[in-house]
Specification:
4 copies of one chain form a homotetramer.
Chain A lengths: L2 E8 L2 H5 L7 H20 L4 E3 L5 E5 L5 H14 L4 E8 L2 H14 L12 E2 L11 E8 L2 H6 L4 H23 L2 E4 L4 E6 L4 H15 L3 E8 L2 H18 L3 E3 L10
Bound molecules: guanosine-5'-triphosphate (4 copies) and calcium ion (4 copies).
Keywords (chains A, B, C, D): GTP-binding, Hydrolase, Nucleotide-binding
EC number (chains A, B, C, D): 3.5.4.29
Pfam family, one (chains A, B, C, D): GCH_III
């Protein structure tokens, strides 16, 4: 069971945003979100997932995408944007360890704000026969519409969602080396190692105790992020129909609940 | 001094994402970020700002954009996306109060997941002669590249940024009715009421005490979000050159520091 | 009755496409069509029209958009694309004469492939009180679906449409100084001076004699391209319902047919 | 030597453009050009080429893209646009015959304006072992900048380019079953069967005699459209350096000129 992660870092972006003058914020927002969208289409149509995280640094699950695919992503960005991107690839048993490796590849080549460090492509993708299996958990707030969106002003709704995200991301990182990303609305997707039902239940309990927000989660696994993530979505629908808090799309061992 | 905010809510989006089957996550991410980018261009080229916040609900500063402009945004979305948007407009002295008003306009017309509630356009824009003045504060982490990006794995860098954001957003909301948004990298932009230097210094101190992240902030004001925000960016550059923590682009009263 | 046209020219684009190596064609196609789409949104949301024509040179009807608007378009392109654009503005009674003026503005500043000529902004927009009136004619092939799309292979359908376009564009240019643009499907939109019904009938007859393709046309006029063009679309719907070849959305003098 | 072509047809697009009211032309232009751009990225990153042709019907060279790839393109369009697309796949020795087959697949399933015909996916892709070889010819006008762009008003420049395109497209179609597409600027790309040097020289002579525009052409071949097209671009650069009219990137038989 190994996951392949890619760190995507815009080269020397900080200085670019203020040279020769600060650039219009709405143009930067447009640039960032379209770059993310393009990468989402590129990676997504090859079975991967990418998360915007900080936008100048994005994290992708890229099982099955080799060096040639990564290179062609760099070329396509260079041909259409005023910025370029460096890519670091890492593989390991846990997502956090894979990201360590991916990040080090880029850091070893120079600073994010090093003018002469551009379009790094470093790290080794999994080879074709490797047993790549990814686990994805799709968390979602219970009745976010009824409790928040339709009740509070939108910023206060957002504060609740944000709190649950902050709480969950730290817990999953610490407890399991899992990487959790807010994906909009009331949804959080976590790239996880293999975990039993009670680990997910504990995470949900933690968030409820910590910030008072109730989550449910669907879990899937697969050879690619999409396969695992899509199963997770189906499992989440099972939570909705069953009124349960944790569902797996695949058979669980002893501790499994479905 | 009055700010005009618009709440942009995708109509009945939750059900759409899972009908007839869950949709591919990377397609949803693409849809959301491109919709945001299009609104950023629309609003931005009219002097406004929009923040992605939860993507299914976005918050915009729209001083100077009237009903006709709002209507034409709705039409353009409807003509090019598989979803529609409702818009609620609110005006008030503090940003939080303006957003209360904006949100209530939409809530009064039905639930975010009400199938028959589409393309609400409610609330009154400021009239042309109104004295619209917006204050924008542009916060930024000191040496984020040296301390985080070039040192930690990217998720752990992100955790630090995220913590500072969670801490600042709650503080500014509580203390001043200000609305703070993460805009990528290590940057947070806050829509604020008029505040003295020490209020900003206290916010920065609070975040440092709370989560150990050092911020600086540039503050601007203007008739539109862009005018105020652009001045804030210049003030932030002043912080960089002067090594200071708080700079205003406009003359401060008694308590001012520049 | 005066029309304002803007020529939008990508600066030094030919050399860029092959430096340092020829760029992937699909990346160039993406760049060009997205740049066009962004300009269509910018200009379109201000009541204007833009036509892709050669993509590296685009022609826009910009009544009502002043220097500041043009400047902000240039800034937005520069901030988000790897290329920049020069803009020439021209105004005159006939569209062809307005485009002469617009083109000369850019040519006077240097060659399209002059490395040092970037972001020209030249020519005077109409001032606010000027009586800007634009006439737009929306031509469409009769039963293109039944005669071509559902019968021939797609390239052969396209040849018929292309022939009708080549024939119409030259005729309208010569006879009336009108500028006709293919806008996809079986549609051609012409920016025209004021013309009587029989002028449009003659154009349609010419195309049928010349290349055997049957057209109909709706004509509108208005202060902006959108106002005129939208009326033209309604007039075209009238042709569909009435089975006529030429319809005006506004009352015609002596020679009018509706 | 076999080419695989895909016809991409927007389902029931004509009626959609005018229901319930005619839609804003600039929104339609944006929709069409972004849909094309997205398909260009999808197909292009898999080695294919797509041409906008009429925008509501686009023609792609899809050697190497199987049914699953086609299906995932349909899904991605459906998830992000207000329209859907049908795809017909055809393979044959000449491009025209391949397009015949591709078009018939879609026509057999119903009219382009049949409300109930959506998301057809018909026709068989080449199987993996098939000897797919595509020939691409990249035509370009000699000194278009000096003779037209810097001299005439932009519409009159465009008329010359358009004439050369109309002349070339018909000639190549008739003489060789080749499909030629205008790709912007002064460039035309033709999907060709295998042809000797003199066939290209004759085409260039024909266009010069017919409409007085001087072309040059680079020819490449490869397993994918990109491989062939990229070689054609290099061959075109050879024309520039050598001052010749026809260059091949690969060794020619007896009649070859390089
Ligand atoms: N990124 C992403 N967001 C989603 C998805 N499904 C729902 N959302 C978001 O979540 C928001 C809330 O939708 P739901 O979770 O269906 O609504 P709810 O009121 O919380 O209802 P329950 O979760 O059924 O209790 C939507 O507006 C979307 O923004 C998904 O698959 N992916
Ligand atoms: N949205 C937005 N992001 C910005 C802007 N300026 C910088 N950033 C982001 O912030 C990141 C870090 O850049 P800087 O703040 O310049 O770098 P730093 O290392 O923290 O250096 P100092 O702030 O100068 O101490 C960049 O990669 C961008 O993502 C801006 O104006 N808008
Ligand atoms: N750009 C643009 N294209 C349009 C518009 N309306 C239709 N089209 C295009 O024209 C194509 C053919 O549609 P129609 O003209 O409605 O169909 P038709 O078979 O020719 O039928 P009639 O014109 O009613 O005889 C569509 O696929 C679209 O590509 C429009 O308003 N703008
Ligand atoms: N689509 C596409 N367009 C191109 C390419 N190269 C050039 N162009 C277009 O062609 C236009 C003219 O560029 P050139 O052909 O280099 O210029 P020219 O003046 O004709 O010079 P020569 O062809 O060298 O005689 C540019 O503005 C582009 O629009 C290409 O590879 N693909
Ligand atoms: Ca939920
Ligand atoms: Ca910083
Ligand atoms: Ca028609
Ligand atoms: Ca040329």
């Amino acid at each position: 069971m190994t996951t392949q992660l890619t760190l995507i870092q815009i080269d020397n972006y900080g200085p670019w945003t203020v040279t020769p003058e600060p650039r219009r914020e709405m143009d930067l927002q447009t640039l960032q979100s379209r770059l993310f969208a393009d990468i989402a289409q590129f990676v997504g149509s090859r079975g991967g997932y990418v998360f915007f995280s900080r936008f100048d640094n994005m994290i992708a699950v890229t099982n099955g995408i080799g060096r040639a695919g990564h290179k062609s992503l760099q070329e396509s960005v260079r041909n259409r944007y005023p910025v370029t991107v460096s890519l670091g690839i890492g593989t390991a048993e846990t997502p956090a360890a894979a990201l360590d490796a991916a990040t080090e590849q880029i850091q070893a080549a120079g600073s994010a704000q090093d003018k002469s460090r551009t379009e790094v492509l470093a790290g080794e993708p999994l080879d074709g026969d490797a047993d790549a299996t990814t686990h994805m958990a799709h968390f979602d707030v219970n009745d976010a519409t009824g409790k928040y969106t339709d009740q509070l002003n939108e910023f206060d709704s957002f504060i609740h969602i944000e709190r649950s995200y902050a709480s969950l991301m730290e817990y999953m990182r610490e407890a399991h080396g899992a990487l959790s990303f807010f994906v909009g609305g009331d949804n959080i997707i976590a790239v996880c190692p293999e975990l039993p039902t009670n680990a997910y239940q504990d995470a949900i309990d933690h968030v409820e105790d910590d910030v008072g927000v109730e989550l449910k989660v669907g879990v899937g696994r697969g050879a690619t992020a999409h396969d695992a993530g899509y199963d997770a979505k189906h499992a989440l629908e099972d939570c909705r129909y069953e009124g349960t808090a944790v569902e797996f799309e695949y058979p669980q061992a002893a501790t499994g609940d479905d």
